Amino acid sequence: MPENATHSSQPITVGAGFIILLSALMALTSLSTDIYLPAMPMLGRELHGDAEQLTITGFLIGFTIAQLVWGPISDQLGRKVPLIIGMLLFIAGSVGCAISSSMTQMVFWRVFQALGACTGPMLARSMIRDLFSRSRAAAMLSTLMIMMAIAPIGGPLLGGLIIEFSSWPVIFWLLAVTGVMLLLALLTLPETLPEERRVRATFNGAFSNYFSLLKNGLFLRYTLSLTSYYMAIYAFIAGSPLVYISYYGVSPQHYGWLFAVNIVGVMLISTVNRRLVQRYPLDILLKTALSIASLAAILLTLAAGMKTGGIVFLAVMMFFTFSMNGVIAATSIAAALDEVPEFAGSASALVGALQYGSGIVSTGLLSLFSDNTPWTMSWIIGLFTTTGAMMVLTVKRRH
């Protein structure tokens, strides 16, 4: 049902098309990574390299650094122009990946692809904060997560289907075409940050906002909690192809279904969370979700350490850990941005940079300590999920 925004000088009608487009922008990161997960073993063989996980690391490095630049720019120029420029960079990077002939080239173009891809989820969050208050923003973010879950569900399934009948370059050509379609849709997007609410400082002054954000204790606590949880999430994303396909012998096509089960959990929990945020404080919801995720992650770690439970126990525990993302991401982001509404663009950039940059740590640890069993992935998930929970369990309750 359409709803008029409340923060803009000229109300913007928020209809189904607007929500779908924002969902697609937020899903761009997941699609860019998840769709080629089934092709990673093939990628390593055909590009004559054994560092295919670095294609994820490279993407996350570009994604993290670029957000810190785009955030202050969007606070000064508005949201629409950076989105359009970012989509052009994403298209160019996708084409570069498709024509790569070595692992070095692939990693380079993945970094380039990320320079543009990061504008989608970052500015979608900023636009929600431009238009809605704290609790309503959390509900809207939950709505977006329900719709954006199509990408991580369909991505591995589609990627597995493509490599069954073709090869990995087709995956990146498909991403390029997707970028073109989103670029055309962006031309119809309204600007949510009016002139009178834009930052008037110089770019150097705008970047100093990050120092102010880092001094805000509550903002930082919510942000670091999400960051720690996403270290666990990226450990699963990067480590699960090895565990499921190489260790347990699951086919690349069936791997997509195993991965999709977790995203279905995110969709279900996000649906429930849309109602919960209207009835309960965000902090209570966040603490509860992180506690559930931590318990499942600890059990997963213990089972992996004792080499018991098998693939079924691993999949069940990951379902509970991963699906809590439907509450954790929406509530922590809404709570963090609500602390600093005057710096929504910069704050969203910093949240996104730390959230997705956390994957750099995860993939680095996986590469460093991998023993070709589920153990390394499991202890990384257990460690960082519980760390994220500890960050918010001491936050003073807010109503």
From TrEMBL:
Pfam families: MFS_1
Domain Major facilitator superfamily (MFS) profile, chain residue ranges per copy: 1-399
Membrane topology: Multi-pass membrane protein
Domain of life according to the entry: Bacteria
CDD domains in the record: MFS_MdfA_MDR_like
UniProt KW keywords: Cell inner membrane, Cell membrane, Membrane, Transmembrane, Transmembrane helix, Transport
A molecular-function term among this protein's GO annotations: xenobiotic transmembrane transporter activity
Family matches, as NCBIfam families: efflux_Bcr_CflA
Protein's name in the database: Bcr/CflA family efflux transporter
